[in-house]
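FORM 12-B: Structure-to-Sequence Request
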């Protein structure tokens, strides 16, 4: 009886023996083992087991999966079938590693993840490719962890706790010993740090480093979003203290080093709720009939000196983060809203691009350098738009941002705004003709009460006043990049790069928009851009606008920062950089520093150093963008919680094998109807038709169909909306 038990135990250890042997050899690649050493690693010592190991080693060597280096000794060559890549986890517990050497991603089953998490840079071993099957692999080493801190909810047991992680791409919870729980209570949302993952443990061991609050509370959820992406909520005391000690006065000594443009008419145009004003425009008529246009940017680099704790903090953040109810700034308030903000009726240090433009908006001359300026007025976009539309100098009370209500604008500013609007339209027209793509995507915004509760939804669209500012910022960014490119010998610089769109995604977009009666011409680059612009114009104001805008943006490559210029596809510029927003973007600070460095006649900066800084800035931009998107989704779920009994008309925005996504037309909130909740039939996903089809009734719910839905469940913690399907619009409105 005992012998039988022992045999079973040994048999368990030898289950899937070939994999266990190759695992040992792979994890010790380049080192040879005999059968005794492998038996010891497997924890078996009986003759039968050793015999099995000896046979299996011979078989694996015959199949050339391992190498017999000398009699009775075997190994796996270091480097053979080993690759590095980034792990992309699915929500179903397995992952894929993107490897440059392979056309398709390598699938990693959950047992082969070997403690790696989503986003980690890993080394993998790829099993021999099987015909008609996706290549599979196993993670053999974690090269770099993308994250070691995670947000989740603490579930207390008697003497320990588990943290259940919010991120759906996390396949395990964290075990926390009692002495590492700190002040956290059962049910708290917490930040847990990876401490260790012992070999035989089912879960990683963690330490709770921060209590975020109770799930579902507004501040808890907003801080959770920031913590999830490793974004800071506030500045360290020593950084605030350093910033507060900076001399922010305007001195005659510094003015003498700069071009003095305080006497030139200047003004800012920004969102009405803006607190930091990065940029101002100046306007002056020249004797030859041309216009002198100044694009004046806050001279952040004057205050933000390299190798200080303030500069290190700004670099680490790399960007301001714009959440639905707050801004998490890149710089402390004394700079972002104070010294660097181009507020009206204040002298400021600026870094400027000054252009001479003829009546057709052609650049006849240009100058770049440090300046001192004085903003004569501040306008909200709505006020500038009113001037453009009415050509009058009276700003009515309902759009005025002044406390004293309606007011009159100086006629010289009205003249400047109208002339700049005319020039901007000419410049935009040339850009469009050259192949730029016009993304005027509708932005969803929320009216919030004093408690940050959403009481309404509105849509922000880009009008002439927005486009006026955009056009001159684009001009400055483009011309600064062109100026550096023209330097000889070649100089290291930071470019904003945007590659051509993905052909497969364009083909998919063509199929989707065909459902709405639109078409795309994918013959060549010019056809693609002109038909994309035509499509984006055609869908404006239609039910499918937001869906088509979103899908069109997804076909585009992601813009990034780099020292190797490839041009900017979306803007149709050969050279482009970011010069105009140094209060909120660190790459712009670096561009100012490099531009000044070269204006002073210095040699080229280190490409390697700036390449690394570009990579970091791009990574942080992506994290900030994800956090912003999550905060909007959170607020949409919060808004819909109060509308559970209402019926909404929506558009089917996505179809998968587990559910239908619907976007509500009146507020752009998106939720999902699970296929298992469609009780009138058994629905199956048809990839070919972008639809789900009832097995018996043949009833079809297809991408782009208008349907009526109700809120079934609004989960604030998971930021997820579940809808109940009421039916197709055509059926309900019969």
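FORM 12-B RESPONSE
SEQUENCE OUT:
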């Amino acid at each position: 009886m005992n012998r039988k038990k022992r045999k079973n135990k040994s048999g368990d250890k030898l289950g899937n023996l070939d994999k266990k042997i190759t695992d040992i050899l792979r994890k010790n690649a380049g080192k040879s083992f005999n059968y005794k050493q492998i038996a010891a690693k497997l924890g078996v010592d009986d003759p039968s087991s050793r015999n099995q190991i000896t046979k299996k080693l011979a078989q694996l060597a015959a199949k050339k999966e391992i190498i017999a280096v000398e009699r009775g000794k075997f190994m796996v060559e270091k480097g053979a079938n080993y690759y590095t890549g980034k792990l992309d986890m699915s929500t179903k517990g397995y992952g894929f590693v993107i490897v440059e050497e392979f056309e398709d991603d390598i699938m990693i089953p959950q047992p082969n993840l070997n403690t790696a998490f989503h986003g980690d840079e890993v080394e993998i071993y790829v099993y021999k490719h099987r015909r008609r099957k996706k290549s599979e692999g196993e993670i053999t080493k974690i090269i770099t962890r993308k994250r070691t801190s995670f947000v989740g909810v603490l579930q207390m047991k008697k003497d320990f706790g588990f943290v259940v992680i919010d991120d759906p791409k996390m396949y395990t919870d964290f075990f926390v010993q009692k002495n590492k729980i700190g002040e956290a209570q059962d049910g708290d949302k917490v930040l847990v740090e990876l401490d260790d993952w012992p070999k035989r443990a089912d879960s990683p061991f963690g330490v709770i480093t921060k209590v975020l609050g109770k799930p579902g509370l507004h501040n808890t959820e907003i801080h959770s979003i920031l913590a999830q992406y490793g974004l800071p909520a506030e500045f360290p005391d020593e950084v605030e203290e350093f910033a507060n000690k900076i001399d922010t006065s305007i001195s005659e000594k510094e003015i003498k080093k700069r071009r003095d443009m305080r006497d030139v008419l200047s003004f800012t145009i920004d969102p009405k709720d803006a607190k930091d004003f990065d940029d101002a425009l100046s306007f002056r008529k020249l004797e030859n009939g041309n216009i002198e246009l100044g694009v004046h940017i806050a001279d952040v680099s004057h205050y933000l000196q390299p190798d200080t704790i303030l500069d290190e903090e700004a670099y680490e953040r790399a960007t301001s983060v714009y959440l639905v109810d707050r801004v998490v700034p890149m710089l402390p308030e004394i700079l972002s809203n104070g010294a660097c903000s181009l507020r009206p009726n204040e002298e400021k240090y600026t870094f400027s691009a000054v252009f001479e433009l003829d009546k057709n908006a052609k650049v006849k001359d240009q100058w770049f350098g440090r300046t001192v300026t004085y903003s004569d007025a501040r306008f909200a976009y709505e006020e500038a738009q009113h001037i453009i539309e009415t050509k009058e100098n009276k700003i009515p009370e309902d759009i005025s941002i002044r406390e004293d209500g309606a007011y009159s604008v100086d006629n010289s500013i009205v003249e400047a705004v109208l002339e700049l609007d005319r020039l901007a339209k000419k410049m935009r027209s040339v850009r469009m003709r050259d192949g730029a793509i016009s993304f005027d995507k509708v932005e969803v915004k929320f009216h919030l009460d004093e408690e940050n509760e959403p009481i309404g939804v509105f849509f922000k669209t880009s009008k002439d006043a927005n486009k006026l500012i955009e056009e001159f910022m684009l001009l400055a960014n483009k011309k600064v990049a062109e100026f550096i490119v023209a330097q000889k010998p070649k100089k290291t610089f930071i470019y904003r790069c945007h590659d051509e769109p993905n052909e497969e995604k364009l083909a998919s977009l063509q199929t989707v928009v065909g459902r709405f009666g639109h078409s795309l011409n994918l013959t060549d680059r010019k056809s693609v851009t002109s038909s994309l612009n035509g499509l984006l114009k055609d869908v404006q104001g239609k039910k499918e606008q937001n869906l088509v805008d979103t899908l069109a943006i997804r076909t585009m490559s992601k813009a990034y920062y780099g020292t190797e210029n490839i041009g900017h596809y979306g803007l149709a510029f050969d050279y482009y950089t970011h010069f105009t927003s140094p209060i909120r973007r660190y790459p712009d600070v670096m561009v100012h520093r490099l531009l000044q460095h070269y204006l002073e006649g210095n040699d080229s900066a280190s490409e390697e150093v700036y390449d690394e800084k570009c990579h970091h800035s791009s990574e942080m931009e992506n994290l900030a963008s994800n956090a912003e998107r999550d905060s909007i989704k959170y607020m949409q779920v919060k808004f819909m919680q109060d509308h559970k009994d209402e019926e909404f008309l929506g558009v089917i925005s996505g179809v998968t094998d587990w559910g239908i996504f619907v976007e509500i037309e009146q507020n752009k909130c998106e939720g999902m109807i699970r296929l298992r909740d469609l009780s009138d039939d058994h629905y199956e996903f048809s990839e070919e038709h972008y639809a789900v089809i009832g097995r018996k009734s043949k009833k079809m719910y297809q991408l782009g169909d208008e349907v009526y839905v109700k809120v079934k469940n609004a989960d604030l913690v998971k930021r997820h909306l579940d809808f109940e399907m009421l039916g197709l619009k055509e059926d309900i409105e019969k």
